[in-house]
């Protein structure tokens, strides 16, 4: 090799090295602070964290608690849960609630979202017998929160239906509207002086689709597109009846707000320039979020959902739609029954029409005639369904605001799972990137009032047992004391809450 060539070679090598370096720098910049929003969250924006009764309380048969559908589902067949686990003890929050409140206090959250176990209050689900020890537990928890200046946000129903009612069909029996709304009234009566944010139902899609559609969750009923839609119909009526009860009997005195919590992924058109893919995206959003929220805001199921389910039902030989119809009276009952909307966002999917949808397919998984897929480059959490797509939250809340007239929205869940990591840097970047996208939407005028990290601590993750962990705090499920230990994300979230800012210094 002559000198010139050697020089050239070195020159090229150098060029390659600096190009490489430049792209590494650029990549890190774009990956980190560069795209993190640097405007502060408003003073009245609420930060909090959440749990649910069944996932953290344990004490499944203690102090008079009645049996619920998940107790039954698990105890009759433990192999339904990964690792044959149960929630009989889980985090033992029934006994350790004071410690939980201390963790919340340390975090500096404005609110704590927890749920009431129906059978702890009403062991058989109905008014026949009130369990005063169960009532006392929630009074104690509320008192402890008050002492520490933490606002309670209370979910009345987070999936744990009383077994006595489940045996009568649960959410597929129209009597549930009565059973549920009387239970809700009792909650307002018992706790309403101390609770200003109520959530009627958590993620009804999971109860209806997983519980009565594919049967993966309790009560394990497989009735896609029939029992599944009866459940949807009754959830909406139950929610609305509870909201009316609050509005009429409690609002003037208690001055609280009542909303519903609906989970939804973002569905991104497979090809943004393809109108069919855009329609598929809209339809799936209406199937997921709209099925519950459209009636509550506008008084009926979304038009697109009604018409496609009817079309498919008739083609399947039914003489009417499998999706029940609201009567005129019911439409008036449900319309306008919200003070805020709760949104649980975790992940996103690409979507397009599915021409191969089986004609006889029924329910949420078929009736939209769409198919979803993921980008293999998306980062994954420990839950099989959790792909990290922070921009999805921005698109979803923007869609929601445009579709429902910019209602007040609280992000009631958003979270990342791992298999047991104390230095949880991926959780930190999950929170940061989702909050950043949320703030961008807020800066565009989307009406977001608060953010909830799911979850305060590792807990019983339904059929995935204790294998996947969403907590800011680690819980030692092997030890009798169920010790809680802060993961790295605790300091991070604490700082975000106190500074209201996602970067070193906000504008
Ligand atoms: C919530 O469920 C629950 O409220 C909570 O109890 C639970 O612990 C927590 O989140 C973590 O799972 O995009 O089509 O693959 C979330 C249930 C299940 C909703 C997966 C979104 C993705 C469907 N999520 N689902 S898809």
Short description:
The protein has 507 residues and is an alpha/beta fold.
Which features does this protein show?
507 residues, eight-stranded parallel β-barrel, binds ligand GBH, alpha/beta, beta-glucosidase activity, glycoprotein, Glyco_hydro_1, TIM Barrel, Glycoside hydrolase family 1
Describe this structure in words.
This protein has a single domain (5-499), classed as TIM Barrel (Alpha-Beta Barrel). It starts with a helix and ends in an 8-residue tail after the last helix. The strands form three sheets. Strands 1-2-3-4-5-7-10-11 form an eight-stranded parallel β-barrel, surrounded by five helices. The protein contains 16 helices and 13 strands. Strand 12 (473-475) and strand 13 (484-486) form a beta hairpin. The model has no long low-confidence stretch (mean pLDDT 95). The protein is globular, with a radius of gyration of 24 Å. The protein is of the alpha/beta class. It binds ligand GBH. Ligand GBH binds next to loops.
CATH class descriptor name: Alpha Beta
Number of strands: 13
The ligands found in this model are: ligand GBH
- Which assembly state applies to the chains in this document? single chain
Number of helices: 16
Radius of gyration: 24 Å
CATH architectural category: Alpha-Beta Barrel
Biggest beta-sheet profile:
8 strands, parallel, barrel
Q: Give the H and E element order.
A: HEHHHEHHEHHEHHEEHHHEEEHEHEEEH
Give the tally of structural domains: 1
Distance between the termini: 57 Å
| Average pLDDT for all residues | 95
Sheet/helix structural class: alpha/beta
How much of the sequence lies in strands comes to 5-15%
Describe the global form: globular
Physical arrangement of strands within the biggest beta sheet: 1-2-3-4-5-7-10-11
State the share of residues found in helices, binned by percent: 40-55%
Q: What is the fourth-level CATH superfamily?
A: Glycosidases
Low-confidence stretches: none
The CATH topology annotation reads as: TIM Barrel
Family: Belongs to the glycosyl hydrolase 1 family.
Protein name: Glycoside hydrolase family 1
GO molecular function, one term: beta-glucosidase activity
Subunit structure: Homodimer.
């Amino acid at each position: 090799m002559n000198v010139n060539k050697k020089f050239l070679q070195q020159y090229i090598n150098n060029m390659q090295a600096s190009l490489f370096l430049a792209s590494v720098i650029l990549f890190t910049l774009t990956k980190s602070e560069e795209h993190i929003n640097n405007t502060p969250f408003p003073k009245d924006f609420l930060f909090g964290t959440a749990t649910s009764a069944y996932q953290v309380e344990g004490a499944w048969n203690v102090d008079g608690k009645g049996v619920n559908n998940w107790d039954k589902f698990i105890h009759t067949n433990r192999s339904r849960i990964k690792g044959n686990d149960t929630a009989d003890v889980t985090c033992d929050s029934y006994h350790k609630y004071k410690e939980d409140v201390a963790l919340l206090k340390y975090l500096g959250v404005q609110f704590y979202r927890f749920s009431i176990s129906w059978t702890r209050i009403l062991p058989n689900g109905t008014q026949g017998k009130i369990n005063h020890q169960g009532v006392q537990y929630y009074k104690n928890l509320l008192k402890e929160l008050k002492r520490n200046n933490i606002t309670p946000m209370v979910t009345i129903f987070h999936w744990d239906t009383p077994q006595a009612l489940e045996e009568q069909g649960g959410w597929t029996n129209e009597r549930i509207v009565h059973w549920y709304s009387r239970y809700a009234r009792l909650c307002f009566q018992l706790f309403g002086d101390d609770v200003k944010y109520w959530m009627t139902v958590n993620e009804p899609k999971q109860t209806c689709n997983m519980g009565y559609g594919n049967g993966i969750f309790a009560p394990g009923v497989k009735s896609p597109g029939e029992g599944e839609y009866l459940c949807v119909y009754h959830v909406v009526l139950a929610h609305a009846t509870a909201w009316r009860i609050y509005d009429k009997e409690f609002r003037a005195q208690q001055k609280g707000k009542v909303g519903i919590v609906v989970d939804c992924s973002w569905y991104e058109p497979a090809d943004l320039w393809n109108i069919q893919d855009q329609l598929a995206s809209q339809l799936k959003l209406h199937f997921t979020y709209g099925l519950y929220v459209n009636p509550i805001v506008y008084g009926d199921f979304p038009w697109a959902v009604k018409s496609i389910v009817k079309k498919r039902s008739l083609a399947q030989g039914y003489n009417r739609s499998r999706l029940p119809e609201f009567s005129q009276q019911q439409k008036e009952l449900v319309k306008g029954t919200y003070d805020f909307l709760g949104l649980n966002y975790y992940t996103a999917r690409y979507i397009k029409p599915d021409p191969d949808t089986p004609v006889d397919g029924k329910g949420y998984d078929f009736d939209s005639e769409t198919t979803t897929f993921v980008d293999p480059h998306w980062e994954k959490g420990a839950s099989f369904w959790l792909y990290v797509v922070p921009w999805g939250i921005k698109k979803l809340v923007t869609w929601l605001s445009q579709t429902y007239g910019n209602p007040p929205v609280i992000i009631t869940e958003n979270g990342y799972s791992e298999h047991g990591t104390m230095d949880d840097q991926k959780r930190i970047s999950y929170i940061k990137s989702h909050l950043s996208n949320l703030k961008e939407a807020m800066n565009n005028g989307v009406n977001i009032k608060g953010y909830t990290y799911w979850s305060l601590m590792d807990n019983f993750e339904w059929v995935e047992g204790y294998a996947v962990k969403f907590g800011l705090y680690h819980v030692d499920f092997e030890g009798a004391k169920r010790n809680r230990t802060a993961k790295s994300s605790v300091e991070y979230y604490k700082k975000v809450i106190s500074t209201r800012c996602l970067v070193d210094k906000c504008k």
